[in-house]
Amino acid sequence: MSRLSDEVQRRRTFAIISHPDAGKTTLTEKLLLFGGAIQMAGAVKARGEQRRARSDWMKVERERGISVTSAVMTYDYAGRAFNLLDTPGHEDFSEDTYRTVTAVDSSVMVIDAAKGIEAQTRKLFEVCRLRDIPITTFINKMDREARDPFDLLDEIEQGLAIDVAPASWPIGMGKTFLGVYDLLNDRLVLMERTGRDSLPKAGEPCSGLDDPKLDRLLPADALATLRDEVDMARGLCKPFDRQSYLEGHLSPVYFGSAINTFGVRELLDGLAEAAPPPRPAPSRARSVTPDEDKVSGFVFKIQANMDPKHRDRIAFVRLCSGHFRRGMKLKHVRSGKTLTVHNPQLFLAQERELAEEAWPGDIIGIPNYGNLRIGDALTEGEDIYFSGIPSFAPEQLQKVRPRDPLKAKHLGKALQQVAEEGAACVIKPTIGADWIVGVVGGLQFEVLADRIRTEYDLDVVFEPTALHTARWVSGPDRQRLKAFVDANRGSLGEDHDGDPVFLARNAWHLGKAKEDYPEVAFAKTKEHREADA
Ligand code: G4P
User: Fold this and answer.
1) How far apart, in whole angstroms, are the C-alpha atoms of residue 314 and residue 367?
2) pLDDT at residue 531, as a whole number
3) Cα gap 134→164, rounded to integer Å
4) Are residues 237 and 342 in the same domain?
5) Beta-bridge partners for 400
6) Which residues of the chain have pLDDT under 70?
7) Is residue 245 in a domain?
8) What is the pLDDT of residue 13?
9) The CATH number of the domain where 58 resides is what?
10) Domain extent at residue 190
11) Residue pLDDT, tens place only, 489-501
């Protein structure tokens, strides 16, 4: 095998999805602990605190105690190179999460054992399903009073319409939680209640549930229950089938307790073994496979102010093919210009470092390259347009104006940048002087006002509008489109790419426009590539 395909096979790029408080941060921390990327548990939170303390610019983030930006962390485990992409947990930032999901090959769904499937779990699950991303389930907090495991499995299976295959089975719960039996590798793994931050031992290999050594290692009643339950589970659930998992039809389920670093090793082993390496990336003309020699990748996220001392922006690029080396000249397909990547960054748990090389599935950060936008492709020459990286029609629209009316032009520039980052949708109405800013969740207005104040030294005022929603309009028949545009000037605007947007006052207004102009398309999402066509 060539080095390229070796490196591709070794990579596991994934995200953790969960409802807030289910334990995503704790699990992340423990995964990094196993990966040797951090020495001591607590580092992720500490790092979060540190980051918040440093980035004064985002007071909202600090005050609300939420993380609004998503990070990438890279670590090695069992000969595999893992890239863990963090997804913001707060529901206001689901658009960002959606784009993160476009850059991973699988995901881990964390569920609180006492709560089961919660609203945000379901939403994020659907996002993964839309992209056919295989999902591994981790049922967390088994050290607390939890719901019955059958009940939880049934809820996942029925509620999310996916087959479940228990990969481990819990022995007791809450105060009587002893550990799990690893069903895939026949091992008994007992939870040690001492030393939360040390790595627990691997389990005890068994020849099966009838192994007489189990009588020695487990109390008789716990063992009898385990045998009964596993018997029943095997009768009720499908066995683990990798193909079915890879196709997104079946989710292996692990039970554990992240805070006790318990069940984490089994989860990681499962990911190392079964999770998919980088998948082919769909593009307009063809599918781009990771083993291709030529380097390609796409921007899925832009983040401002990683370092508040400089006004720096980082474009996060998911590599899709080829062996990337520092200093490479890549074609920025949208502009046709060549870009020499001098300072690509890799993101290790605690620091960024220069990436001398990177492989498909890896995420590199390209700093301060103002022309990169979400959805843009970088290649070694071919005009590739990656597909499936959408913008969403904003659900909340507000007018924005500078407190000082003389600074309107300045505001225009700031908004253009914000829009290019994908932090909000910015629309300039055809008639009138105000800008309209659209977001998916209301909290983003506060974050934006704060950023514009600190980064651009501009005080802005957001004001409610009577607008209901926005739709990107297009149509194959230019004349009809023009007729629509002419008749609806008062309700039209342009987004930052110059694409026409219809601003509807209410549902009826939108319905009427669709009825009157059936040949005009009113799109809820815009694929970034469309802007490039
Ligand atoms: P999130 O990122 O999904 O929002 O969840 P996070 O890891 O921050 O965990 C939410 C709370 O649940 C935390 O408690 C955390 O300590 C706790 N937790 C996580 N895993 C387990 C587990 O396996 N068992 C138990 N019993 N608790 C767990 P907190 O009180 O909100 O925060 P903290 O003060 O402990 O940090």
Assistant:
1) 4
2) 38
3) 12
4) no
5) 435, 462
6) 1, 37-71, 88-95, 194-198, 305-312, 348-353, 368, 390-393, 527-533
7) yes
8) 97
9) 3.40.50.300
10) 14-67+107-274
11) 999 999 988 889 9
Residue 198 and residue 175 share a domain: yes
Q: Please, what's the b/e burial string for 396-411 (b: 16 or more CB within 10 A of its CB; e: otherwise)?
A: bbbbbbbeeeebeeeb
Q: Is 118 in the pocket of ligand 1 (CB under 6 A)?
A: no
Sequence letter at residue 484? F
d(CA 361, CA 374): 17
Q: Which of 386, 272, 314, 198 has its CA nearest to residue 9?
A: 272
Using CA atoms, how far apart are residues 200 and 369, in angstroms rounded to an integer? 44
Verify that 111 and 196 share a domain, yes or no.
yes
Q: Would 77 be classed as within a structural domain? A: no
Please report, for residues 280, 387, 445, the alpha-carbon distance to residue 457 in angstroms, rounded to integers and kept in the order given: 43, 36, 17
**Considering its fold, how many domains does the chain have in total?**
3
Ligand 1 center to residue 510 CA distance, Å? 44
Q: What is the structure's pLDDT at 198?
A: 66
Which residue's C-alpha comes closest to atom 30 of ligand 1?
Answer: 21
Residue 135 Cα to ligand 1 midpoint, Å, equals 22
Which runs of consecutive H residues, i.e. helices, occur in 403-527?
Answer: 408-421, 443-456, 478-487, 507-516
Q: In what order do the strands lie in the sheet with 168-171?
A: 168-171, 179-182, 187-190, 204-205
Pocket-testing residue among 16, 19, 26, ligand 1, by greatest number of atoms within 8 A of Cβ: 26
Spell out where 184-291 has E strands: 187-190, 204-205, 250-255, 281-282, 287-288
**Could you tell me which of 217, 325, 290 has the C-alpha nearest to residue 8?**
290
Q: Which two tokens stand for residue 394?
A: 């904003």
Q: What is the pLDDT of residues 160-195, one digit of tens each?
A: 999 999 999 999 999 999 999 999 999 999 998 765
- Give the end-to-end CA distance of the chain in Å, rounded to a whole number: 38
Residue 326 lies inside a defined structural domain of this protein:
yes
Tell me the CA–centroid distance for residue 114 and ligand 1, in Å: 13
